[in-house]
Amino acid sequence: MSNEPRYWYAAKRYGWGWGPPTTWHGWVVSILIIAAIVAPARFFLRPDRIGKYLVYVAVLAAVQLLVCYLTGPPPRWRWGGSDD
Fold first, then answer.
1. Which of 12, 38, 53, 71 can pair with 44 through a Cys bridge, CB separation 3.0 to 4.6 Å?
2. 13 confidence band (pLDDT: 50, 70, 90)
């Protein structure tokens, strides 16, 4: 077995951040985040509740970024070279 850590999310080839999940753990988290965004949309998407929904989605996006940061490779800008 390799001593190299197994990341849940791959590094993007170009730019900053992470790409799609590479393990089942990452897929489960991503699917749960998407479900948490879509499921309450019918309840929230009304003129008097749209602001609350946007805050809710922003919090879920922050949670997703935190999970990527903790379980993915360190973020840095990548230019698509072979050393990435």
1. 53
2. confident
Q: Helix (H, G, I), strand (E, B), or coil: what is residue 38? A: helix
Q: Which residue has the tokens 């993915």?
A: 72
Strands 14-15 and 9-11: unpaired
For the chain, give every domain's residue range: 9-74
- The residue length of the chain stands at 84
Cβ atoms of 78 and 15 closer than 8 Å: yes
> Is 10 in contact with 22 (CB distance < 8 Å)?
yes
Spatial contact of 33 and 63, defined as CB atoms under 8 Å apart: yes
Phi, psi (rounded to 5 degrees) for 28: -65, -45
